[in-house]
Design brief:
254 residues; alpha+beta; Creatine Amidinohydrolase; 5-stranded antiparallel beta sheet; 15 strands; 24% strand; binds magnesium ion
Length: 254
């Protein structure tokens, strides 16, 4: 299949899908609070994505049972929303996908519940910066490995590790398209980036070791050593200049 180049018209639709994802995340970020059950976030996400004219992409994807992935503290990704009540000091990764007119948007943020520890704050802020650095490396003419290496180097220079078993990905009509985008690896390798490629970059950064384990629900991915983990993701389009962030939260309002 290879990496699919999207037309301007297709990217325009993906911009709308991305806007829906960003709007839902913005709403969740405003509403999340201590005492809330994670399933309440899922209900809001499902309601808002439909209100905005999209469909939740994750529900039913390989059997995933919810609209939203909610991963708390030592959970990395793919947490299933449920009865867990959020507590002051938690960090919560919210990963949302929406389908609009046959195209996908996918983004994630990690947010704080009330006051969090300085260590948690540093991890979350660094992971967001890691994603920004990865996006800055995603330029026409660069290689895919340049994104991977930038992400790894940035995170490891701060004393953190990047998850190896889960990666970013191409995105378009399908939630997961080629290529896989590891968050580690050598620069100057892999396919050349070209205008019209649409990619979901998603560094998962652990305070401790990079190793993971999957929980009893067969979905939730945990840090093997129990350390905190943060996750940020954007869907981007490669252009002639800086990549365009299709799921940008800037200027998004509920
Ligand atoms: Mg993704």
């Amino acid at each position: 299949m290879g990496i699919i180049i999207k037309s301007e018209r297709e990217i325009a639709i993906m911009r709308q899908a991305g806007r829906i994802v960003a709007t839902v995340l913005n709403i969740l970020m405003k509403q999340i609070k201590e005492g809330m059950k994670t399933k309440e976030l899922d209900i809001i996400a499902g309601r808002e994505v439909e209100r905005l004219g999209g469909k939740p992409s994750f529900k039913g994807y390989r059997g995933f049972p919810a609209n939203l992935c909610v991963s708390v503290n030592n959970e990395i990704v793919h947490g299933i929303p449920g009865e867990r009540a959020l507590r002051q000091g938690d960090i919560v990764s919210l990963d949302m996908g929406a389908t609009f007119k046959g195209f996908q948007g996918d983004a994630a943020v990690t947010v704080a519940v009330g006051e969090i520890s300085p260590q948690a704050r540093e991890l979350v802020a660094t992971t967001e910066d890691v994603l920004k650095a990865g996006i800055a490396a995603a330029r026409s003419g660069a290689r895919l490995g340049d994104i991977s290496a930038t992400i790894q180097n940035y995170a490891e220079a701060k004393g953190y590790s990047v998850v190896r078993e889960y990666t970013g990905h191409g995105i378009g009509r399908e939630l997961h398209e080629e290529p896989q985008i590891p968050n580690f690896g050598p620069p100057g390798t892999g396919p050349e980036l070209k205008k019209g490629m649409t990619l979901a970059l998603e560094p998962m950064v652990n305070a401790g070791d990079w190793r993971t384990r999957v929980g009893d629900d067969q979905w939730t991915v945990f840090t093997a050593d129990g350390s905190l983990s943060a996750h940020f993701e954007h869907t981007i389009a490669i252009t002639d200049g800086e990549a365009e962030i299709l799921t940008s939260l800037e200027g998004v309002y509920a």
